[in-house]
Design goal:
The complex is a heterodimer of chains A (255) and B (310). Chain A is of the alpha+beta class. Chain A is built from 9 helices and 6 strands; from the N terminus they run H-H-H-E-E-H-E-H-H-E-E-H-E-H-H. Chain B: It comes from Thiocapsa marina 5811.
Chain lengths: 255, 310
């Protein structure tokens, strides 16, 4: 026979176990979801918080991938458990025009609104100029040649020859066009790739709206990566269109 | 007798072969379940790695969380889908339909048919239970059977609170199942953990006390399951063999069985271990709405109640 006191005690104990267990549980999940920001997602992946919630971890994107690019993260892999990711140094994303991984996704974690694979933003390439062959003065530019968006995602700048130095052809990444497919990283001939792809938010800065660049204002609205404008895709806080930073508000309206 | 001489005798007279066939026959449901469990895994694996197809369509792509049959029909785990919905995200209709389809099938078959006929963890915990029964027989502590419903409620509540499908992110079932199909990582360690827990710490600890997916499916088939184990009270002599082998012995409460004429509890997994082991053949699969095993008039005999078999 349970007394009222006993019942209340048991209830309190049960609630305490549930609360502490629940906190430990959520800690595990949140830690796992946030601890690995290095994972590159398939084309069309929603921003991390939404992607992690929507992905049902079924692996149909990985089954659909004709190049075996996509893997499902096993326990202790460098991506949140069970979610799809790829490592471009092993196999990059070859940007299929029909985007079979996105088509296979049953939940919408890979955005069904992505129509053109070149609009996907899986990551952003960056060049380690200290170890890039071209930047050291050799002729390489392999990344430029293999890039599926040549001159849009990577372009080559010519540095004219100086006294007792020959001319150099320097590959540079244009963040506006880069899909993060990683074909450049895969092709880079150095021992450890000198061009790598990482999630854009890890490597890309933001100028901020309060800096004024008068010489650009003359051309109308500021544009380009120098204007503090973020890339479309995984960054979700793009500045509003038509809002020109550094506007002379004192000379407007009643002032 | 020399073994060769034994082999020379006609088959029908050979006691060894007869014993083997009898034994195999008594394991018929067990063998069928293993075939189904391994077959499902094999279909997933073969479609991914060996390109299995039928009429040029991939046979079964994905895994038990969500899959596509012959490139046409989407199936989805209703529990995972429910958790994602609770995170406040809108799902594509494809996965919602898939989840509804699977839910419908298990509503009719009996929810926990999933557990004993499909779940890839079941063979492991079954084996741990077998070892516990044969070698160990000691529980470190007692867990209440209804603890799983608390875990289930927590999984749903946490999905709302943290915005991530809480169980899918820690599920040892998912971790192990994915790795068997998509490549090995450390998911097998979760399985080793479950195995040791079930064998040496608490008998049927995971499947019978903790697993929220099992709790979900227990709730699913509770009132609608159509395939049930029917009970014939007239022939039952109360030997208790069925309860000894049942992974959820609370569902075989003879008092309740006598009342209902069948196992009505949603916690019954339809694993059918009890049916061949019954020496009086008092248990058999049947439809929920049909009459009991044999329509003989109820005969009163001492009932074994929960108090006798804690």
């Amino acid at each position: 026979m349970t007394t009222r006191r006993g019942f209340i005690q048991k209830s309190i104990q049960g609630a305490a176990v549930a609360t502490s267990g629940g906190m430990l549980w959520s800690y595990l999940v949140i830690q796992n979801a946030r601890a690995e920001p290095l994972a590159l997602r398939p084309p069309g992946a929603l921003p991390d918080a939404d992607f992690n919630a929507l992905c049902i971890k079924c692996g149909r994107c990985a089954v659909a991938c004709p190049y075996d690019t996509l893997k499902l993260a096993a326990l202790a892999d460098r991506a949140p458990l069970g979610t799809p990711y790829f490592e471009p140094r092993e196999i990059p994303c070859y940007l299929c025009h029909d985007i079979p991984c996105k088509v296979a996704c049953p939940t919408g974690a890979l955005s069904p609104t992505l129509d053109e694979v070149m609009d996907s933003r899986m990551g952003l390439a960056f060049i380690d100029t200290e170890h890039c062959l071209s930047w050291q003065g050799l002729r390489c530019e392999i990344c430029y040649r293999v890039c599926p968006l040549r001159d849009k995602a990577i372009h080559v700048e010519t540095r004219r020859r100086e006294l007792s130095k020959h001319a150099m052809l320097l590959p540079m990444v244009l963040s506006e066009g880069c899909t993060g497919c990683g074909i450049c990283e895969n092709a880079c001939p150095t021992e450890i790739a000198a061009i790598k792809v990482l999630p854009a938010e890890l490597i890309q800065g933001k100028i901020g709206d309060h800096f004024r660049m008068g010489w650009k204002q003359a051309e109308g609205a500021m544009s380009g990566p120098d204007a503090g404008e973020t890339r479309k895709g995984r960054l979700d806080s793009a500045p509003e269109q038509g809002q020109v930073p550094g506007l002379d508000y004192l000379n407007q309206a009643e002032f | 007798m020399h073994p060769l001489a034994l082999r020379a005798t006609p088959r029908s007279c050979n006691p060894m072969i007869k014993a083997t066939t009898t034994r195999l026959w008594s394991w018929r449901y067990l063998i069928l379940r293993r075939i189904v469990q391994i077959g499902v895994l094999l279909l997933f694996f073969g479609t991914l790695h060996w390109g299995w197809s039928l009429f040029g369509l991939p046979v079964l792509s994905g895994n038990l969380s969500a899959s596509e049959v012959l490139g046409q029909v989407t199936l989805a785990d209703p529990f995972a889908t429910l958790q994602i919905l609770l995170t406040g995200h809108v799902l594509q209709s494809e996965v919602l339909l898939g989840a509804a389809l699977v839910l419908g099938v298990f509503l009719i078959l009996g929810g926990r048919v999933w557990c004993s006929w499909v779940c890839p963890v079941n063979p492991v915990t079954d084996f741990a239970g077998f070892l516990h029964r044969k070698t160990w027989r000691k529980n470190l502590f007692a867990l209440p059977r209804h603890l799983r419903y608390t875990v289930l409620a927590l999984a749903l509540l946490l999905s709302v609170l943290i915005g991530l499908p809480a169980f899918e992110w820690v599920s040892p079932i998912g971790a192990m199942h994915r790795e068997m199909i998509f490549g090995l990582g450390l998911g097998w360690t979760a399985l080793v953990g479950l195995f040791l827990f079930d064998w040496l710490v608490v008998k049927h600890g995971w499947c019978g006390h903790l697993c929220p997916l099992g709790a979900f499916y227990s709730a699913v088939g509770r009132y609608t399951a159509q395939v049930r184990v029917k009970f014939d009270q007239a022939s039952c002599n109360g030997c208790g063999k069925c309860q000894a082998i049942c992974p959820e012995p609370q569902v075989l409460n003879l008092k309740r069985l006598a009342q209902d004429g069948q196992v009505l509890s949603g916690e019954c997994t339809n694993c059918a271990r009890c049916i061949p082991i019954c020496p009086e053949e008092s248990l058999a699969f049947g439809w929920r709405l049909s009459t009991p095993v044999s329509g003989s008039a109820p005969v009163r005999h001492p009932l074994i109640t929960k108090e006798d078999h804690p």
